[in-house]
Amino acid sequence: MPLKPYACHANASRGRRFAEPAAPTRSEFQRDRDRIVHSSAFRRLVYKTQVFLNHEGDLFRTRLTHSLEVAQLGRSIGRSLGLDEDLIETIALAHDLGHTPFGHAGQDVLDDCMKAHGGFEHNLQSLRVVDHLEQRYPAFDGLNLTFESREGILKHCAKRNAELIEAREPGGIARRFLDGGQPSLEAQLCNLADEVAYNAHDIDDGVRSGLLTLEQLESVPLVQHYLRETLGVYPALQGKRLLFETIRRMLSQQVYDIIEASEAALAEHAPADVDAVRRAPPLIRFSPAMRQASTELKRFLFANLYRHAQVRETRHRAEIVLRDLFAAYLQDRQQLPADVAEQADHPRACADYIAGMTDRFALKEHERLTGQRLFT
Q1: Angle at CA 62, nearest 5°, toward 226 and 307?
Q2: N or C: which terminus of the chain has fewer CB atoms within 10 Å of its end residue's CB?
Q3: Do 167 and 297 fall into the same domain?
């Protein structure tokens, strides 16, 4: 399908922070995607976890597999809506580059450790990775991505950080957080695809881990509907196949719902171009009924999976690891690699270094520095 007028068009990109000649065989957004895939931060996502830690099983999702699932969902929906699939893929693959080891536990610990030094936000850290921390090119720090890719990566941003970015980059990617505007449709789509992927694979991983059961999930209307629909067609189905088919049907319907609801919103607001999209309300959306159903599922997962005693115990030990690492690095620069230790903003350098760690490297470093092994 050809791109719609309200899509981001690579040949009309707002450009890069450092001018570069165009690539002869790739669009600007394809080039961004390729830079993400070849980055060190992207490779490290394979050993950064979602809910379950790497040592707890080989089949649970990691940040890498999650990012791939978001990209797949985003491209499928974006193709039907006439959006730029390469930009969608770029944002999806990059959106978790700033995530710490040990999932959200790491984000919370680093934010607390950095309270006196500007705090820590994983979305802002993803931008920091692509703007500064990747060091692959001789002419600039970072990956020098297009405005549109960077805009999509910065999903959330506290006002104080938006003001700092705006001061460095007037009218740039942080302006919308100060004006109440929206990002591109491609970025909006990635945000929603992220939610859909999270809910689906956390059901899968939760049941696979034994922390959730299908009987529990029957209390969630969205899951119950597709579980019963599956059993209506395959009454003898059970176990993994029943779980997978239920999730597949639920995912498919959410995709169709987003397409239908977004098409209706686009028809109602009729944005003439991407600038009109930024002035409009969010246009990539669930229907009200699906929004409610998805919210109920998220509440269930929060109460029964993310707050499960086993997950909380793992989280507690992960928090100890990262607090100990931050304290050790802050106290003694000699424990850091030379290029990190020599940076002027020492607390931020410590946070950058820890945020970039994989789960298993953080555990190795903790054992080296403390002599303790908190995970077997």
Answers
A1: 65
A2: C
A3: yes
Quick one: tokens of 188? Answer: 């909006």
State the DSSP code for 5.
T
pLDDT in tens, the chain (376 residues): 789 999 999 999 999 999 999 999 999 999 999 999 999 999 999 988 876 554 444 456 789 999 999 999 999 999 999 999 999 999 999 999 999 998 888 899 999 999 999 999 999 999 999 999 999 999 999 999 999 999 999 998 989 999 999 999 999 999 999 999 999 999 999 999 999 999 999 999 899 888 999 999 999 999 999 999 999 999 999 999 999 999 999 999 999 999 999 999 999 999 999 999 999 999 999 999 999 999 999 999 999 998 899 888 988 999 999 999 999 999 999 999 999 999 999 999 999 999 999 999 999 999 999 999 988 7
CATH of the domain at 44: 1.10.3210.10
Distance of alpha carbon 72 from the chain centroid = 14
Residue 21 lies in a domain: no
| Run of H or E residues at 30 | helix 28-37
Query: CA 290, CA 254: separation in Å to the nearest integer?
Result: 7
Measured CA to CA, the distance from residue 305 to residue 299 in angstroms comes to 10
Residue 17 inside a domain? The answer is no
**Inter-residue contact 139 to 146 (CB < 8 Å):** no
- The answer on 185 and 151 residing in a single domain is yes
Domain extent, residue 290, equals 26-311
Query: Do 37 and 151 share a structural domain?
Result: yes
Cα separation, 274 vs 267, whole angstroms: 15
d(CA 318, CA 108): 11
Contact call for residues 351 and 326 (beta carbons, < 8 A): yes
Q: Tell me which residue of 61, 60, 63 sits closest to 358, measured CA to CA.
A: 63
The answer to whether 184 and 283 have CB atoms below 8 angstroms apart is no
Cα(184)–Cα(282) distance, rounded to whole angstroms? 9
The domain boundary, picked from 311, 333, 353, lies at 311
Q: How many domains does the chain have?
A: 2
19 in a domain, yes or no?
no
